[in-house]
Amino acid sequence: MPSSVAAEAVDELETSHASRPMTAAVVRRLLPSLGWTAADIRHAKDLAAVCKRLGEDRVIPMIVRHSAQAGKKAERSAVRTLLQMLGG
Q1: Could you give the CA distance from residue 76 to residue 68 in angstroms, rounded to a whole number?
Q2: What is the mean pLDDT of residues 6-25?
């Protein structure tokens, strides 16, 4: 999504809601206009819930570590799949 579209959406939101706090309904309408998918929004909610329970300072390093491990597994799997496609 072009950044100018996102910037315009944010400017419009700020103008229309400058004197009152953002509600959950406004955020639910805003995020998709900025390119967020339903999966992105669910992930953000899940991450916020985990951070609230365990603390961001503990959660972020855990996520980084697990993401790196998952990335390595996915890479190995992709190489094996390509090798099989090439006939072994």
Answers
A1: 13
A2: 75
Q: Which two tokens stand for residue 28?
A: 């639910």
Instruction: Give the model's confidence band at 15: pLDDT under 50 very low, under 70 low, under 90 confident, else very high.
Output: confident
| 34 and 3 Cβ atoms separated by less than 8 Å | no
**Which residues have CB under 8 Å from 83's CB, separation 6+?**
none
pLDDT of residue 1: 47
Exposed / middle / buried, residue 58 (Cβ in 10 Å: 0-12, 13-18, 19+): exposed
51 vs 19 pLDDT, higher one: 51
Select from 28, 43, 26, 35 the least CA-distant residue to 7: 35
CB proximity list for 30: less than 8 A, separation 6 or greater: 9, 13, 22
Whether 51 and 59 have beta carbons less than 8 Å apart is answered as: yes
